[in-house]
């Protein structure tokens, strides 16, 4: 039977061990994400948000509990996911064209068709003119767009996004938010975003989870109304109900 969930997490616990102590980052966390849903994780630093992404990606092994992607148990790095971080991670000695197919090469998927699709994505990002440039020749916003192309190139079903736009100015941030939303809707992808930007969370998310406590747990869930979700990120920020949602989210995050 096919699972109705893109992501299913049950009683997840993860513990770090240092030289002097044992630290439980998250405890008995359960969560489901529907296919095509955009879920955002917010909360104070150190509450386990990035740890949750790393566990879903199969980069960490939980101390207890289980993670399934489309009904398949995660036991290591998964072909279902692709991970984008705050730092673009572009290799300075490779051109844009070479950087954006790095994931394809690592997964042994760099076929002619896959590379052609990557170039089409780059064109959609408005960067077809920088194919032969090196990263140092690009602005911060351009570098993040190339990183987004690289993330999407492997055609993941689930995008894991760890503060990918936090270092950008507001114009580039909103532009990349829109590009991301356009791609997710067109390709019907699932996404989980970690951000400290509460406005960003409301402007692009379907459902927002407040993570808090030590160890981290889900303390509050906020569903973004459909009329806001239907708007582009810039227009969403101007919606009459946006400020009240922001105030609610602010109170929940800062009450923990």
UniProtKB/TrEMBL annotation:
Keyword Nucleotide-binding: yes
Origin: domain of life: Bacteria
Pfam families found in the cross-reference section: ABC_tran
Cross-referenced InterPro entries: AAA+_ATPase, ABC_transporter-like_ATP-bd, ABC_transporter-like_CS, ABC_transporter_ATP-bind, P-loop_NTPase
Single annotated GO MF: ATP binding
Coiled coil: none
Keyword terms: ATP-binding, Nucleotide-binding, Transport
Record domain ABC transporter: where: 7-238
Protein name (Swiss-Prot/TrEMBL): ABC transporter ATP-binding protein
Organism: Laceyella putida
Lineage: Bacteria, Bacillati, Bacillota, Bacilli, Bacillales
């Amino acid at each position: 039977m096919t699972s109705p969930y893109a992501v299913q997490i049950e009683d997840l616990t993860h513990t770090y061990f240092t030289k002097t102590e044992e630290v439980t980052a998250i405890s008995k966390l359960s969560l489901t994400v529907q296919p095509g849903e955009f879920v955002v994780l917010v909360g104070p630093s150190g509450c386990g948000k990035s740890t949750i992404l790393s566990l879903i990606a199969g980069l960490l092994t939980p101390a207890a509990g289980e993670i399934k992607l489309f009904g398949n148990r995660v036991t290591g790095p998964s072909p279902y996911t692709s991970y984008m971080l705050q730092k673009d991670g572009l290799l300075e000695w490779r051109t844009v064209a070479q950087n954006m197919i790095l994931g394809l090469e690592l997964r042994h998927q760099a076929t002619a068709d896959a590379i052609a699709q990557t170039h089409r994505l780059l064109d959609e990002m408005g960067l077809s003119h920088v194919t032969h440039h090196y990263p140092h020749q690009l602005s911060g916003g351009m570098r993040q767009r190339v990183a987004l192309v690289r993330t999407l190139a492997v055609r993941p079903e689930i995008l894991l996004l760890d503060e990918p736009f936090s270092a950008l100015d507001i114009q580039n941030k909103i532009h990349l938010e829109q590009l991301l939303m356009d791609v997710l809707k067109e390709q019907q992808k699932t996404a989980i975003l970690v951000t400290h930007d509460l406005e960003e969370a409301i402007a692009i998310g379907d459902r927002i989870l407040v993570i808090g406590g030590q160890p981290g747990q889900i303390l509050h869930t906020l569903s973004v109304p459909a009329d806001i979700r239907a708007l582009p990120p810039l227009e969403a920020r101007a919606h009459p109900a946006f400020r009240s949602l922001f105030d609610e989210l602010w109170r929940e995050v800062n009450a923990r």
